[in-house]
């Protein structure tokens, strides 16, 4: 806890530097990743992330230093090379894109690991810390490293905000974009370049192995909260920034621990929460909608059956026992009882000594359900020429769907019929 | 049977197009008149969509060329509007109806610039024309098939073009949308705009269009509807006489023979 306050008081200059660095890196890759996500190119992002490792190692071997600018250039080159290779395999052979991606990812990463191992055994003292590119080390974001990486992040933000409209149409409808004369090929090139750059800068904080998660997960989480590309991009950026901050804190409190897994854990938890809790698109909210729909159907069925019972003995407002309702139609007992209680709460029924009867409101609603059921049966047999003994099942579903407008149209079309195909009276 | 247009808006000159190395259009050579509502009709797999995609520069041409208003596509892009097939985009994309229609203005806007209030007004007007003004803010994922098609048409109208290429705009739409769309297209033709529509339904084609292109891998016929819509020509288009052409196409694809020799 003490550590927590120490960190978030931001008194140490190196803390500020690490925090700013991590936030810029993770949020810029999240913003760029939004378009990778919208273009459904998540796997390509993963391939690029793994493919930058040999570039970093090669840049180090050739230059002998860990100058961040040189490492970025090396990473950028092999990142691009991997995309070109995937494209080449896809267009020149009959292999599908997923095969090409898997091949390129593992070959490039394998070569990278090979180089990294040989560098580590070379006895070169400058190499210490190079392995932090595997899983990320936010604590290293100080001095020139910070300046270089932060600059690249700002460039990424700049490009996305300048070309936002173009990126949007490129993701939504590229052939339309081409027809109206936008330079689609160039824009694709720009988008790919900033994706590679986002990966390249993000690896300092997250590492090559988990970088794809940083590109895609914030966008996937943001998608659950909004229906607007701009908002989605902003939310993804904020979520990315938050996970970067968490990563910086971990890096500070446990310097030996790699940052990448922590950042990815934080963003994944945010994504999980979004999948479950987001309004409308979230799983919980969809389940709730389903449940209230099931309740509605149950309630309408109960009112309908009570009306049927009353229709038979001509005393619609008589009190009925649960057993009497069950005789009319079987319902699972628990659902039946909770349905009756719901209907009482809504003012459709009243109960006395375990027996239930209609209020005026409930009677009218029950009558309407019976009417809709029989109208639909008649419609099916008259307009669709379906045999009378085949219409009941369908009407059981459709009666819950028909709106008052449709109801009025049906009545008019069928000219307020007296009876349904089974010669039962249609009540008005 | 081929009638040349006196004042052509579009000229296809000896056009051959391959798709995934397989030739799907052979030697298309025709002209289409200005200010007409033109239907491209033919059976499934006849290359109807391929023809307008080739005209829009979306597919590489094996040979020949397309000219619009006697100029190349790049010179007249601002006068050309395109409605792709409805299924060609992801309708779950997080954006609103107005946003999609505004995309029709992007060509005139050019790079970096954002849509102005005038652009928004134009987009709103186009939505009104297609009867979708009540859906401006609606998410595109909530639209029905017919509404999606109306939105695509509104986007095309927002381009304020002189020639419209539409890929199956009547596919899978309700009767109300069909007559609304047809009304708009006829209105455009009356204003002197040229409207080229890929259409799969023979029966309605006879009622919709002034000028018909019958297509089945090669051009069977083109001209005013009264000359072209004959039993004989329709049989040529839909009959199974073209199996040789299709088989040769397969051969070319399988053996990877270039569709035109270079020397």
Q: Give the end-to-end Cα distance of chain A, rounded to a whole number of Å.
A: 70 Å
Task: Provide the β-strand percentage band of chain A.
Answer: under 5%
In the CATH hierarchy, the third-tier topology of the largest domain in chain A is known as: ABC transporter involved in vitamin B12 uptake, BtuC
Query: Largest sheet of chain A at a glance?
Result: 3 strands, antiparallel
Element-level helix/strand string of chain A: HHHHHHHHHHHHHHEHHEEHHH
Oligomer: heterodimer
CATH level 4 superfamily of the largest domain in chain A: ABC transporter involved in vitamin B12 uptake, BtuC
- Rg estimate of chain A, integer Å: 32 Å
- At the first level of CATH, what is the class of the largest domain in chain A? Mainly Alpha
Q: Could you characterize what this model shows?
A:
By secondary structure, chain A is an all-alpha fold. Chain A folds into two domains: 15-278, ABC transporter involved in vitamin B12 uptake, BtuC; 282-428, Arc Repressor Mutant, subunit A (Orthogonal Bundle). Chain A has helices spanning 2-8, 13-38, 42-63, 68-92, 97-120, 132-135, 143-162, 164-172, 174-179, 184-206, 211-223, 229-253, 260-277, 283-313, 322-328, 333-345, 360-383, 392-398, 404-413, and strands spanning 320-321, 349-352, 355-358. In chain A, strands 1-3-2 form a three-stranded antiparallel beta sheet. Chain A is elongated and about 100 Å long. The termini of chain A are far apart. The model of chain A has no long low-confidence stretch (mean pLDDT 88). With 263 residues, chain B is α/β, with parallel strands linked by helices. Chain B has helices at 48-55, 73-76, 97-102, 106-109, 117-129, 145-158, 175-190, 202-208, 225-228, 231-238, 243-254, and strands at residues 8-19, 22-33, 37-41, 63-68, 80-83, 163-167, 194-199, 211-216, 218-224. The mean pLDDT of chain B is 87. Chain A binds chain B through residues 38, 162-163, 165-166, 168-169, 171-173, 175-183, 223, 226-229, 232, and chain B through 53, 56-58, 74, 77-78, 80, 82, 84, 88-90, 93-96, 99-100, 103-104, 106-107, 109, 111-112, 114-115, 139, 141, 155, 159.
